[in-house]
Amino acid sequence: MRAGREELLLERARLDTASPNDVIEWAFSRFPSDRRVVVTGLQADGVAVADMAIAADPSVRVLTIDTGRLPEATHRYLDALRAHWGRGIEVVLPESAEVESFVGGHGSNPFRRSVALRLDCCRIRKVAPLERVLAGVDCWMTGLRRGQSERRATTSVIDIDERHGGVVKVNPVATWREDAVTEYLTQRSVPLHPLYDAGYRSIGCAPCTRAVAPMRTPARAAGGGRTESTRSVGCT
Ligand code: SF4
After folding, report:
1. CA 122 to CA 179: how far, in whole Å?
2. pLDDT (tens digit, 9 = 90+) per residue, 40-72?
3. CA distances from 236 to 5, 22, 81, 204, 225 (A)
4. Is residue 235 annotated as involved in ligand binding?
5. Which residues form a coiled coil (predicted)?
């Protein structure tokens, strides 16, 4: 069931100033539970959306993609989130045959040799798994925010994701600032990815992400901590 464009544009205008919880409630009322999913890369914004979604529907599908190159800290963090929420988190892996062929032909770290190989690696490990997931749903929820980058400055709360066959993309915290996300997670006692404390601002594959500056949490803000300045050198 793909949503009608006109209906969604009307809803988008209505929900643009709504709270994230209201946006999530709209998605839940609009799409049946087996046709919607929260997809998170386990960064603070996506985890906040997952937490809100779980609060509204404890059985909501929450999913992350394990590229096979994630840092060990991310696997530990997944365990911490499972323990915190008292439920599972789906993990989607790349097609093993594709990874085997790619690594067999180009080695374990070909992304260091060319942009083309980096894009191929991302396509196999991230893009294709996400496409497989989205082929089976009508709605996906993300932690995209307008403040994350210039490219995302016009992110809508609700969008039609033409790159993924017209699935509805819901970004409940699109209008939130980073401070609001971290404050929400602190108030809810949801753990943050441990690499934020190590100075990572964008957390993805271990070989393609590096520490740059600490995240601004409420505690750090009180102490004059630095604000947004991030960079992943991966393909996201
Ligand atoms: S971020 Fe790096 S390791 Fe991860 S899929 Fe992309 S190129 Fe490969």
Report:
1. 30
2. 999 999 999 999 999 999 999 999 999 999 999
3. 27, 28, 23, 8, 26
4. no
5. none
pLDDT, residue 60, reads 98
CA of 99 to the centre of ligand 1 (A): 12
What domains lie within the chain, and their CATH numbers? 5-177 (3.40.50.620)
Q: CA nearest 163: which of 134, 123, 121?
A: 134
Does the pTM surpass 0.85? The reply is yes
Residue ranges lining ligand 1, Cβ < 6 Å: 67, 69, 111, 118, 121-122, 125-126, 204-205, 207-208, 234-235
Instruction: List the residue whose alpha carbon is closest to atom 4 of ligand 1.
Output: 205
| 121 assigned to a ligand binding site | yes
Rounded Cα distance between 165 and 213, Å, is 37
Instruction: Please count the other Cβ atoms lying within 10 Å of the Cβ belonging to residue 47.
Output: 27
